[in-house]
Amino acid sequence: MGNFLDTPITDKETDIGEGLGMSYGLSAMQGWRAQMEDDHIQILGLPDLPQLSLFGVFDGHGGDSVAHYVAKHFPRCLLDTKQLTADMTAEEVTSRAQTAFEKALMAIDHEMSTLSEVESGQDQSGSTSVMTLISPSHIVCANTGDSRAVLARRGADNASTAVALSQDHKPFLPSEKERIEAAGSHVKFNRVNGDLAVSRALGDFVYKRCESVSAQEQAVTAFPEVLSEARLAGDEFIVLACDGIWDVMSSQEVVDKVREMLVSGRPPPPPPDEASSADDASGPPAEQRPSPPPPRAWDLGAVCECLIDHCLRLGSRDNMSVIIVLLDPALKPKPEANGPASSSSSGAAASTGAAETSAGTS
């Protein structure tokens, strides 16, 4: 296909932050792909709505333009819906957040369709989107595509169970296939028109040209599926990630891996043969490769980095982006007695309080 490198780019963009009784870590890595097409949002406390936090991962395809545009402009579109207010009751959060997500995602998709580079056909990129809006009482997740969000919830047996906050949108699913065919397209090789592997996405306007159906009912739609969970005392953390993570790990496996690292600390380095198995045989010999950077100080950003490295060893060939939102402060990573002195090994900037929207993976 020509879109893979001879050796993976393992440099990572990493960030951490905390506030509102939560903390988060995020990391993104280009990996084997020839281009980094992911982006993300992390906001602890929306403008004028400090009780609401917004996190999101956007997995671009066919280019990075749509993912970057959504990361930059979606918070504005969400607030422009006027659905979210400071005086919302707990009972109103879920319905208002769902309406806000639906309106905002359709609005930003229409907004992008009018950009000159899109109208000219110069840019035909698209992006999946998975976002969580977190209030003191609820977690509301809006999903468009096959990125995924999962909640780790501790049960009576003290084990963590993966609670799905989203469902992957694949063209072969009966409800998705029905919409695709009603819009004049078809599913071949489990792809829309034999090409696109997701049935919902932002951008991808070549699949949104059917004049007999609404924007919401196009073969590939930006309209999200919104799921809500009331927050419980046993809620431990949320993981949002692109399919580069989920291609090689199940939701429960990710929850188990993250919780193990939060409880037990930094995992030991893999054996030399396993560490090198992710490298392509055509790459330079091990003795000619640059030394890896020193490990990042043990924090939520480092947990994200370790999860990405684990998925690389498992064989993931895609860009990888992951956000971990820690809801239980008792699980916050403990500093290592003899660990690195700083947490800047990946060029990351730690932040506290309200975090800014980031497009740091470009």
Helix and strand topology:
Layout: E1 4-19, E2 22-33, E3 38-46, E4 49-61, H1 65-80, H2 90-113, H3 116-119, E5 126-134, E6 138-144, E7 148-154, E8 160-164, H4 174-182, E9 187-188, E10 191-192, E11 202-203, E12 225-230, E13 235-241, H5 243-246, H6 251-264, H7 272-276, H8 300-314, E14 320-326, E15 349-350
Parallel strand pairs: 1-15
Antiparallel strand pairs: 1-2, 2-14, 3-4, 4-5, 5-6, 5-11, 6-12, 7-8, 7-13, 9-10, 13-14
Helix pairs in contact: 1-2, 6-8
Annotated CATH homologous superfamily: PPM-type phosphatase domain
Relative strand content = 25-35%
> Percent helix among the residues?
25-40%
Q: What would CATH call the architecture?
A: 4-Layer Sandwich
Number of spatially distinct domains: 1
Largest β-sheet summary = 7 strands, mixed
Helix and strand pattern: EEEEHHHEEEEHEEEEEHHHHEE
The CATH class is identified as Alpha Beta
Which structural class fits the helix and strand makeup?
alpha+beta
CATH topology: Phosphatase 2c, domain 1
Q: Helix segment count? A: 8
Arithmetic mean pLDDT: 90
Head-to-tail CA distance between termini: 22 Å
Query: Got a strand count?
Result: 15
Could you list the spans in which at least 5 consecutive residues all have pLDDT below 50? 341-362
Shape: globular
Radius of gyration: 20 Å
Strand order of the largest sheet: 8-7-13-14-2-1-15
